[in-house]
């Protein structure tokens, strides 16, 4: 097959969407398929032998730490030149809008995937009046696709309530070889704890943005001097966060990648995930693979990944002070070790191949290739 992937974010950017796409592309190539990526032009034009066709990118007013590509007729030209068997539009919003429009206009089978709860972000950016419009906009885009993917059962239910059509759950994946408890590193622990390795080390990994609710972790540091915090990542909210955590046992590392990131996970004690607006949270899976117990808000997506009091602790986001008291329970090292062992055990057999095969089977279904009913994926092309 010739597979065109149109995405709002790709290398050299780093996030859960990019990680998932890279794993898929490697699998598609291994299976003998040809792939082309259309993405914002960030100066990288190849990924492991796959062409990246750059679309002019610029910073936007509300999010100056990242560049975005706006809708453009260049997408039509690129699709016509490549002439794919299937088009996958990832998180359609800006350049993805052009991807949806031209894939439909040119008659290419199209799949779209939903990864980011943008309508929910309206509250964090003080524009709640746009929430209804945003749901309308994303529904309009996604319902042009023959099939839609999302990353959890909870988000699937929400999308169905918002009248998105033909929604399926895209399975989880993680590199259990890269992310492993054996990646513990004494020097990394010293770095993350700011030279205080004997403290209980909390770790957050992700984009530094208001919707991540990172500020609430400070309440733990204010309540106990047994804890230190490392925040790995970058984003538009970094400076306000640095001011917020000033005077506490907190280290900001900036972005970490590959082996360095794996060492950071394995060298910490507890992974904290305060966000309540995630569709999945790949970092949760990476933390579990690294043998880290977790603290996260009790929500649909997190309950699908974390078993309360077995692989992590879930707090009630509506209960005042529950986040702080939940994290403080990890002063008990016996509890921490038990949950850490279970977290790694539950994820040890996971990889990226199963979720990559799943989406490839969906591509074949909507393109009418290799049969019309594909076993456990339960997709019948004639009904799409």
UniProtKB/TrEMBL annotation:
Name the UniProt record assigns to this protein: Glycosyltransferase family 1 protein
Keyword Metal-binding belongs to the record: no
GO molecular function, one term: glycosyltransferase activity
Glycosyl transferase family domain boundaries: 197-345
Alphabetic keyword roster: Transferase
Pfam family, any one: Glyco_transf_4
The Glycosyltransferase subfamily 4-like N-terminal domain, residue ranges: 15-176
Gene3D superfamilies assigned to the protein according to its UniProt record, in alphabetical order: Glycogen Phosphorylase B
InterPro entries xref list: Glyco_trans_1, Glyco_trans_4-like_N, Glycosyltransferase_grp1
């Amino acid at each position: 097959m010739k597979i065109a992937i149109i995405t709002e974010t790709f290398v050299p950017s780093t996030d859960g969407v990019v990680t998932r796409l890279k794993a898929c592309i490697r699998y598609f190539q291994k299976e003998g398929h040809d792939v082309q990526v259309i993405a914002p032009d960030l100066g990288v034009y190849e990924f492991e032998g796959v062409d990246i066709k750059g679309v002019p990118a610029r910073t936007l007013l509300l999010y100056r730490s990242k560049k975005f590509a706006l809708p453009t007729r260049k997408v039509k030209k690129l699709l016509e030149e490549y002439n794919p068997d299937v088009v996958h539009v990832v998180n359609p919003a800006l350049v993805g809008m052009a991807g949806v429009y031209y894939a439909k206009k040119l008659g290419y089978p199209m799949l779209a995937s939903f990864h980011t709860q943008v309508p929910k972000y309206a509250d964090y950016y003080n524009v709640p009046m746009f929430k209804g419009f945003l749901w309308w906009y994303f529904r309009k885009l996604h319902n042009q696709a023959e099939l839609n993917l999302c990353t959890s059962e909870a988000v699937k239910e929400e999308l169905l309530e918002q009248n998105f059509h033909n929604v399926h759950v895209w399975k989880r994946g993680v590199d259990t070889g890269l992310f492993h408890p054996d990646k513990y590193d004494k020097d990394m622990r010293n770095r993350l704890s700011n030279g205080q390795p004997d403290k209980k080390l909390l770790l957050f990994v992700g984009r530094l943005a208001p919707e991540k609710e990172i500020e609430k972790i400070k309440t733990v540091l204010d309540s106990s001097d047994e804890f230190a915090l490392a925040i790995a990542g970058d984003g538009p909210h970094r400076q306000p966060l640095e001011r917020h955590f000033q005077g506490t046992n907190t280290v900001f590392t900036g972005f970490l990648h590959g082996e360095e990131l794996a060492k950071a996970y394995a060298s910490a004690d507890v992974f904290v995930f305060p966000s309540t607006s995630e569709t999945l949270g790949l970092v949760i899976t990476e933390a579990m693979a690294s043998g880290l117990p977790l603290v996260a808000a009790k929500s649909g997506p997190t309950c699908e990944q974390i078993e309360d009091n077995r692989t992590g602790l879930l707090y009630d986001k509506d209960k005042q002070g529950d986040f702080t008291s939940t994290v403080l329970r990890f002063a008990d090292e016996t509890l921490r070790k038990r949950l850490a062992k279970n977290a790694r055990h539950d994820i040890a057999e996971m990889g990226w191949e199963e979720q990559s095969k799943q989406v490839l089977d969906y591509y074949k279904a909507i393109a009418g290739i290799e049969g019309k009913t594909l076993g456990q994926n339960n997709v019948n092309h004639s009904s799409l």
